[in-house]
Amino acid sequence: MGQVVALDELLIERKVWRGQPTALPPSAQPTGHALLDAALPLGGWPEHALIEVLHPVDGVGEFDLLVPTLARLTQGGEAVAFVAPPYVPYAHGLEDRGFDLRFVHIVDAEPSRELWAFEQCLRSGACAAVLGWPRKVDDHGLRRLQVAADAGRSLAFVFRDAKFATNPSPAALRLDVGRTRSVRVRKCRGGVAPAQAFVVAGHH
């Protein structure tokens, strides 16, 4: 049996190559929630990436989480697309929350075409952010969305039932929104997921 050498000794003697992860640049897309930005390794949303928002029921703050970002993008003249939303967005409500409706697009799609429409909006490069609620999407479908988000340099927000939280996901960021409007980071690109939870402020 060969001699047992401590790993530290090998590293000191440079006999083992130690890979250094490439540091990702800080995000240029703040979430609009100071505590969440401070908790995320990149200081905001992972850019050109898939962001998965898990929630147990509709209306627990999952959309409120994105309002500051979406309002900021539309105010800057950048397009935001809603692909087959489960409820028709209320135009006056969006305006009251700072959205410039000239840059808000609602894409209608049959259930069998939701994922395709979501992917095409992302790939187009015309949208700064695309939101989707696909009723049927597997790991392969999520990977397609991630690739499309990267190709189109867009933020991809996918809303899914919390029951999928235990399934693996290629998303760069996975957030759990609880019934009390608490947000917990399950997975994040660029570092370790913060342990603390964040509470989404309600609409006033």
Strand content: 15-25%
Q: Helical segment tally?
A: 6
Number of domains: 1
* Low-confidence spans: 15-21
The CATH homologous superfamily name equals P-loop containing nucleotide triphosphate hydrolases
End-to-end separation in angstroms reads 70 Å
- What is the overall pLDDT average? 88
Q: Indicate the percent of residues in helices.
A: 25-40%
β-strand number: 8
State the strand order across the main sheet.
3-2-4-5-1-6-7-8
- What would the principal axes of the Cα set say about the shape? globular
List SSEs in N-to-C order. HHEHEHEHEHEEEE
- The CATH topology assignment is Rossmann fold
The largest β sheet comes out as: 8 strands, mixed
CATH class: Alpha Beta
By CATH, the architecture is named 3-Layer(aba) Sandwich
- What structural class do you assign from the helix and strand content? alpha/beta
Radius of gyration: 19 Å
How is this structure best summarized?
The chain is α/β, with parallel strands linked by helices and 204 residues long. It has a single domain (28-199), classed as Rossmann fold (3-Layer(aba) Sandwich).
Question: Explain this structure to me?
Answer:
- The chain is an alpha/beta fold and 204 residues long.
- The protein has one domain: Rossmann fold (3-Layer(aba) Sandwich), CATH 3.40.50.300.
- The chain contains 6 helices and 8 strands.
- Strands 3-2-4-5-1-6-7-8 form an 8-stranded mixed sheet.
- The longest helix is centred in the C-terminal third of the chain and has 14 residues.
- About 3% of the residues have low confidence.
